[in-house]
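Bug: token stream looks shifted between consecutive jobs. Job 1:
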Amino acid sequence: MKKIETIIRKSKFGEVKDALHQIEVNFFSYWDVTGVGNEKQGHVYRGVSYSTSDIQRRFLSIVVSDPFLEKTVAAIIETAHTGNVGDGKIFVSDVIESYRIRTGEKGADALK
């Protein structure tokens, strides 16, 4: 099993969520987060200057069985990509075990 943690633009969350549901990844957690990125300059929008040093993003935590890893990452990249600075990051780590509290199932069965 793998844990996928991704930080994406809030404006892309709906598209990413729909793409994950299409590949049958139906459970994940998410949070609104603020981060500091590589872009150091501010932007001017309608004559108002604003800082981009504190960036509003959405953080998703997804645990999938190994066969779902590549298609999950591909779905996130395809839908979250704009080609601009600040599209986000994806981190993948191993999950040693998972348990469903209600039934006591463990492993990949607990993810269904």
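Job 2, same session, no restart:
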Amino acid sequence: MATKSTDKVESFYIAIILYKSSSDKHDYQPLYQESFILIKATSLEEAKAKALNHSKNETVSYTNENGETITWSLQQVIDVNSVLDDNFDSSEDVVDLYARHFRNYEAYHSFEPLLSKEQFE
């Protein structure tokens, strides 16, 4: 008797994860880090679970040059979505992976430190 294969096809997903730094210093100003990770999974639900599991395991503490303990920990998993084009074997030099939309450019400009009026040369 032949058995059916239950192997599901894996696809790629992008997760955006927000981390926050904290310190034992009383007047410490937190720093935030936005990380984009690539996940291989058989479904969006599995990708979300993998993103959450990965991000919870990324808590890191260290002592900086001033003797202060700095701890990076998960703030929130912002988004998990399938990549726009998972054809990584294509002969093209560029592959679109992720896009998100917003309406308030001024808000984006106020928090994005790399945004400037200069174009890449």
